[in-house]
């Protein structure tokens, strides 16, 4: 039924002439990825492998004579290691508190910023302030605020008549723990808000109009329109903030140094101390592998949730 | 009506939450050390002085002693931080652009896997790789140089950079690329004159993220640097903190200085950041 | 200045065939239109000519020089995109001059040419604006200007008018045709709109399922469609079709559709003979059907639509609806009995097994009185 329109009498010439072989798409893609792959391969993949190798050794810089391959002994010794177990407890509590506060405050703040009101631009700019603060400076800042002798909090509460005398907030284990968590939340909140705000900005306004036409109230609009759209960004926030909280170090290091006692001695602090102060590279590497695996398992859990909902596209 | 009231109350509450802690160290930074230690505290500097800031340029004898010369080091540390953070952002954009372009435009075998591998490298905490990383840097003779820091921060920021850029690149219409090809551009010229200018919001968002990663990082800076030739501001700020005889006003001033450059940067670019992120990274 | 020749061009996207086998020659300075429904492969064919899409097989020649190995930026082509694809970060002047800059034309000359082209398209006042500050019609002109500023061998236009409103589209059709006449260059135009194809082209290639169904002048395509698809796709309102059977009755060839019998004209010849005793599809254009008070095939008015100078009357003929184009005014009422007369010379006959035309209308024939049995 086809009438192929070869409307010239010219002989077919040149069809034998093969087009020059061009690079396949896959080859081109890997060529484009080569620089990133080299950097990440050399500086992350190789060190990861090497650190795993180290974690199978007894290897202390100060005791080079004792160096030897010990299989999983470092890991096994963790099970009975009170410092490790207590720091694991502290870390889990820390992650849960930080994550909970971040999600609640971050969602509330993002929702407020998504409304229109006088001064919204100012608040939007203010949100970025904690993000611009290095963790170390964040630690310094909260230390001056919670200081037992000269702190702003003590002064404020005393002037308001809420306390009778200055309190040493950072010397009580519970106080120190809550304060570090609070300081950590303050520092990481902007990142959460930016992601959630970007997520909110992608909700088509027609959806709200449609919901209004369908007589949905404020609460229904939130649960039926806003929340479903926020789930994906919230899961991203959960992944990133879980990772951040597990490796929280800067703020705690400066604010409490892990103390008092072991109250804020999260695993990252313990790990750095083991490596830097005790130069026990073997045990230190085992610690870091535990952190890695725990974060990995949790992240895979989150990611598979995302995939199941069919809402992620890599 | 009630909604408006609730909204404003929340907004004011959040504003105070965000600003008051920072205000406190700004306040301290303009005080004399004596006032800072007074009970009750001064919530406004009675007797404001720029001495703490001037000290960074020309420290007095007692200022110079604080935190093992942290005061004198602060200007250099700020400069180091700027150089490292800026270079990290640039290196990230270059490497990230190539990789992200491949993910956004080419369908290739293993693309999903590769992207996940990139992200998985972010799951590994820095401490886990710091020892081998240190050894690699020693082999490359990069210890205590900008190079070591730029390379480490690049590995931290690259996966996120690629992620942000690939999503933004996907929003650039393919027909624009086609038009540029027809308008006689080779690939590199097309990227430079058409594709990248259009992707500016994504590039800015990614650049800011890498800059902030580098500016804020402490642990690697602590391990990889040993002198003021490469020590960044978090390292010097920590020196204030670990000195028991530190001057709290000087420490506050250094803290404020450490916040200003990134703050200025994000304030200038804040519109682009949200726009760049909204392109897809967070979309359902 | 170029003749563009495609030989057995084929394109697959991961196993899906977009263009099956296309061979075409576009003469130098010709205006050729590729027309067809969406997914017929017309745009892919154009993109392969342009070099934006690699061919899976076949060859493309510009003036007998093979160009298959050249990417788009090395081919002597200019293109207008459906979405216009204006560079959002460049001003109109920069958009227009971009290709010339890449071709390393001196700055002063670029400026002159930009002014010339802007003047000829009536967009001089917009030169410093950015695309987002322009209306749809203005963007369209800039997109056109970006192509015609080039001194290219072939100008490729991919549905350039489809994003315009109806009125603007009409005027731009005329402008484009005039532009082609002035430039005297090879134009290859892709559209799904058969009106655009009919009004502008020197020749039309009708495509479907990755194959060229017919390539001929608009008159030819309209008068003698090569198959059922071309007949149904080209022409507005579309051709009427009746399914039935061809029978030989003594010396006459008859087409029967239920109660309706049509005597086929004498020029029906040997092609139709083969269909004798078999199913066939009769086609006739609405303007080749007449309404009479009596003496034709009995039918009822179904609906009448005023088109302006003409009225399009749909009549029920047995089980089928047939469209008839009559001059206005027409005052027939719904369900009124009428008589339908088909112009015998204008009858098309198709073989339903492969859709091929076995009988085409004789273009210059007088409407004769139809004998009905």
Automatic annotation (TrEMBL), chain A:
<dbReference type="InterPro" id="IPR000515">
    <property type="entry name" value="MetI-like"/>
</dbReference>
<keyword id="KW-1003">Cell membrane</keyword>
<dbReference type="InterPro" id="IPR035906">
    <property type="entry name" value="MetI-like_sf"/>
</dbReference>
<keyword id="KW-0472">Membrane</keyword>
<feature type="domain" description="ABC transmembrane type-1">
    <location>
        <begin position="88"/>
        <end position="302"/>
    </location>
</feature>
<dbReference type="Pfam" id="PF00528">
    <property type="entry name" value="BPD_transp_1"/>
</dbReference>
<feature type="transmembrane region" description="Helical">
    <location>
        <begin position="176"/>
        <end position="201"/>
    </location>
</feature>
<feature type="compositionally biased region" description="Basic and acidic residues">
    <location>
        <begin position="9"/>
        <end position="21"/>
    </location>
</feature>
<feature type="transmembrane region" description="Helical">
    <location>
        <begin position="92"/>
        <end position="113"/>
    </location>
</feature>
<keyword id="KW-0813">Transport</keyword>
<protein>
    <submittedName>
        <fullName>Sugar ABC transporter permease</fullName>
    </submittedName>
</protein>
<keyword id="KW-0812">Transmembrane</keyword>
<feature type="transmembrane region" description="Helical">
    <location>
        <begin position="30"/>
        <end position="53"/>
    </location>
</feature>
<keyword id="KW-1133">Transmembrane helix</keyword>
<feature type="region of interest" description="Disordered">
    <location>
        <begin position="1"/>
        <end position="21"/>
    </location>
</feature>
TrEMBL record, chain B:
<feature type="transmembrane region" description="Helical">
    <location>
        <begin position="5"/>
        <end position="26"/>
    </location>
</feature>
<feature type="transmembrane region" description="Helical">
    <location>
        <begin position="113"/>
        <end position="134"/>
    </location>
</feature>
<feature type="transmembrane region" description="Helical">
    <location>
        <begin position="146"/>
        <end position="165"/>
    </location>
</feature>
<dbReference type="Pfam" id="PF00528">
    <property type="entry name" value="BPD_transp_1"/>
</dbReference>
<feature type="transmembrane region" description="Helical">
    <location>
        <begin position="248"/>
        <end position="268"/>
    </location>
</feature>
<protein>
    <submittedName>
        <fullName>Carbohydrate ABC transporter permease</fullName>
    </submittedName>
</protein>
<feature type="domain" description="ABC transmembrane type-1">
    <location>
        <begin position="78"/>
        <end position="269"/>
    </location>
</feature>
<feature type="transmembrane region" description="Helical">
    <location>
        <begin position="218"/>
        <end position="241"/>
    </location>
</feature>
<keyword id="KW-0812">Transmembrane</keyword>
<comment type="similarity">
    <text>Belongs to the binding-protein-dependent transport system permease family.</text>
</comment>
<feature type="transmembrane region" description="Helical">
    <location>
        <begin position="77"/>
        <end position="101"/>
    </location>
</feature>
<dbReference type="InterPro" id="IPR035906">
    <property type="entry name" value="MetI-like_sf"/>
</dbReference>
<keyword id="KW-0813">Transport</keyword>
<keyword id="KW-0472">Membrane</keyword>
<dbReference type="InterPro" id="IPR050901">
    <property type="entry name" value="BP-dep_ABC_trans_perm"/>
</dbReference>
UniProtKB/TrEMBL annotation, chain C:
<dbReference type="InterPro" id="IPR047641">
    <property type="entry name" value="ABC_transpr_MalK/UgpC-like"/>
</dbReference>
<keyword id="KW-1003">Cell membrane</keyword>
<keyword id="KW-0547">Nucleotide-binding</keyword>
<dbReference type="InterPro" id="IPR015855">
    <property type="entry name" value="ABC_transpr_MalK-like"/>
</dbReference>
<dbReference type="InterPro" id="IPR012340">
    <property type="entry name" value="NA-bd_OB-fold"/>
</dbReference>
<dbReference type="InterPro" id="IPR003593">
    <property type="entry name" value="AAA+_ATPase"/>
</dbReference>
<feature type="domain" description="ABC transporter">
    <location>
        <begin position="4"/>
        <end position="234"/>
    </location>
</feature>
<dbReference type="InterPro" id="IPR040582">
    <property type="entry name" value="OB_MalK-like"/>
</dbReference>
<keyword id="KW-0472">Membrane</keyword>
<dbReference type="InterPro" id="IPR027417">
    <property type="entry name" value="P-loop_NTPase"/>
</dbReference>
<keyword id="KW-1278">Translocase</keyword>
<dbReference type="InterPro" id="IPR008995">
    <property type="entry name" value="Mo/tungstate-bd_C_term_dom"/>
</dbReference>
<dbReference type="InterPro" id="IPR017871">
    <property type="entry name" value="ABC_transporter-like_CS"/>
</dbReference>
<keyword id="KW-0067">ATP-binding</keyword>
<keyword id="KW-0813">Transport</keyword>
